[in-house]
Amino acid sequence: MVEDFDSLRTLLVRVLSSEGYQTLGASTVPEAIALCGSEHVDLLVTDHAVPGGNGTEIAREAAVTNPGLKVLFISGSPESTMDLDVPGAQTGFLQKPFDLDALTTLVSELLTVGREANAPS
């Protein structure tokens, strides 16, 4: 979870952790890139506007060391105003402000993408 507002990051980490996800938090681009390089990450949830750069930069770096990475961008700006292209990653977008149920639903959906193809028939 990459979010520069401490109280929001703490809340979102708590919500996702309560849903059973192992969740780490970062507040800057360098901190997020370091975490993604040292830990296996299945899903990156990142604000697009982050001190030191933006969420797309974090996602592109994270995708290099985390094959199959899924990315959920969150932002107060409209999706159409940002470059959210992350080669090799499945991405989603959630406009701020958002409902916590919408967040947990999108996280679940993104983590499920690709698993259906690997499920036994």
Explained architecture:
The chain is of the alpha/beta class. It starts with 5 loop residues before the first helix and ends with a helix. It has a three-stranded parallel beta sheet, sandwiched between helices. The chain has a two-stranded antiparallel ribbon with strand order 2-3. The protein contains five helices and five strands. Helix 2 (29-38) packs parallel to helix 3 (55-65). It has one domain (6-113): Response regulator (Rossmann fold), CATH 3.40.50. The radius of gyration is 13 Å and the shape is globular.
Binned, the helix content reads: 40-55%
Question: With helices defined by DSSP (H or I, 4 residues minimum), what is the helix count?
Answer: 5
Could you tell me the number of beta strands? 5
What do we call the CATH topology? Rossmann fold
CATH architecture: 3-Layer(aba) Sandwich
Order of helices and strands: HHEEEHEEHH
CATH superfamily: Response regulator
User: Could you name the CATH class?
Assistant: Alpha Beta
Radius of gyration: 13 Å
Oligomer: single chain
> How much of the sequence is in beta strands?
15-25%
* pLDDT < 50 stretches: 116-121
Q: How does the overall form come out from the CA principal axes? A: globular
Descriptors:
Rossmann fold; 5 helices; disordered C terminus; 5 strands; alpha/beta; globular; two-stranded antiparallel ribbon; single chain
